[in-house]
Specification:
homopentamer; alpha+beta; OB fold (Dihydrolipoamide Acetyltransferase, E2P); 2 helices; elongated
């Protein structure tokens, strides 16, 4: 699972019928500083009520997304499975990153 | 799911029989400016009527593609599941990207 | 699915029994100019008769490969599902790439 | 499976109910020197009792995670499947890396 | 499937019970020169008797690994499915790489 920052909302009217009714959020994987983007942005379905300024725990596999949404036919990959309250990063890992 | 720009059409006559009859589009994952390419281009099946100048929502997993196409034997990975009308990007995410 | 150039043949005598009898090709994902390599080379099973100088459509998921080969026990990931005759790339995408 | 360093703990109160009761660890894939980070950090469920200063063997697929946790509905991707006591790296590989 | 160089052995005593009894090897994806590392090292189960100096054909998907090992509950991703005796690389691909 990836640590992602909520980066915005997505408006899509023309889409697969199984995706209708779900909130689609734009999420950006970030480094341990929780600010620096790493890799490409994703679009994820939100089921935990994530919003602006939240750091989310994002699962990128469709099989997980289908389990979580209880819809075996939804063509989705990424889903927000939790909101991260706090990361307790070991000093050593923090140091390596900041070099 | 990835944000992709429609980058072109694909002509392939010699292909797996399950792929026949589908429109194959060349799609390019892009950054939040919706212009800068990020990573390798993909070839995706289109089922929502995407075309030139569209920004598409692309699912990269075969399991999703098979569900969406209703064909359990189609050897496909990427499928266009929606067209993005608008991205409402938070100012902070926009700023980080433009550094 | 990825756009790959056929990059060579693979000789492997000591291998899983399910892989015996299949032609293994070395394929290299390429950019839209169909020449510049992008990312790591892959080894794929060929079922469409691809050869030297061909640009192939490659599927990287084992589930697709097993469907296509009709062998539920074959431990394979990549498979060539088509040969690309032509890519009709939109001028805008071409321009972004050549910057 | 990836070689990861334990990089910290994760606190998340608002999350999918299947994730409750599991220890979530922040893990960082590392190079063969076991220090240099490579790629994005992941959040993984720990079932082998990994802790600070451990080098873990991390599996990134949800299907494996569900098998290991004995919970077919848990929307998880990464799971720690072992702790690495020692890596016996061939001199040649070590040399290539240190160039 | 990826072309990997055998990079070393892994010693792990504290691990998932399904992993016990298998030989774990450290493998490094390499470029077509079979020397230059590309991407992160992986840990793979060996079932073909690969060893030092071998170039292996590595499958990175857990579903393939489980099929090959005949153990539906093993939480593994990468498995060595063959040993590469020879790569017959087309001159053009060789040239692009060496630029």
């Amino acid at each position: 699972m990836l640590i992602c920052k909520i980066a915005g909302d997505v408006v899509s009217t023309q889409k697969n019928s199984h995706l209708k009714g779900y909130k689609l959020l734009l999420v950006q994987p970030v480094e341990l500083d929780l600010t620096t983007p790493v890799g490409v942005s994703l679009i994820a379905i939100d089921k935990v009520g994530a919003g602006k300024d939240d750091i989310a725990l994002v699962n990128k596999e469709g099989s997980s997304a289908r389990l979580l949404l209880g819809d075996e036919e939804i063509p989705v990959q990424a889903v927000i499975v939790g909101i991260i309250d706090d990361l307790d990063i070991l000093p050593e890992s923090r140091a390596v990153r900041s070099r």
